Amino acid sequence: MSANKKVPVRRCVGCQEMKGKKEMIRVIRTKEGEFLLDATGKKNGRGAYICPSAECFKKAVKNKGLERSFKQAIPPEVYEALEKEMGSLGTE
User: Fold this and answer.
1) In whole angstroms, what is the distance from residue 10 CA to residue 16 CA?
2) Which of 9, 49, 57, 64 shows a CA-CA span of 20 to 30 A to 39?
3) Structure confidence at residue 2 as a pLDDT band (50, 70, 90)
4) Residue 32: CB partners within 8 Å, gap ≥ 6?
5) Domain segments of the chain: what residues?
6) What is the pLDDT of residues 47-57, one digit of tens each?
């Protein structure tokens, strides 16, 4: 028997590429309706994945990738907060 483990893959809401779950950053919407970055990938909430690059983040904002994933309008303040948080993770 071989021990080939499947690597979970997710689609980036910015560039639409399929990549390994561990390579990406998860954006979650909690039950309270707030949006957070989930670096661990374990927090409760509806999630969407994005590549850790400023370019993908800009694409996600432009093509409304996060809004499609969460099926709701996302206020500009949320995008600003997520951009700051991504910058603090050293992903730019």
Assistant:
1) 9
2) 64
3) low
4) none
5) 9-88
6) 999 988 889 88
